[in-house]
Amino acid sequence: MDTTIRNLDPFIYRKLKAKASVEGITIGEAINRAVKTWLNIEPEKHKSILEIRPEHIGNQYRHLSEEIDEILYKEEMA
Question: d(Cα 35, Cα 41) in Å, to the nearest integer?
């Protein structure tokens, strides 16, 4: 969402802009982080792929990847 913020202290804006630049983020992202902290909103947790656990989807699908490979790569496998 694009918005305009009025009456922002120029000194604070310059400090914000400099810190955002050092962090490699946009001013919008910096403001989002600051407001989330001020509102006590938990930051989003990004899961590592190592934290994702397989999910059992049933025995009827146990050969699904082989079936997909056969359809997709039928000519290459011959």
Answer: 8
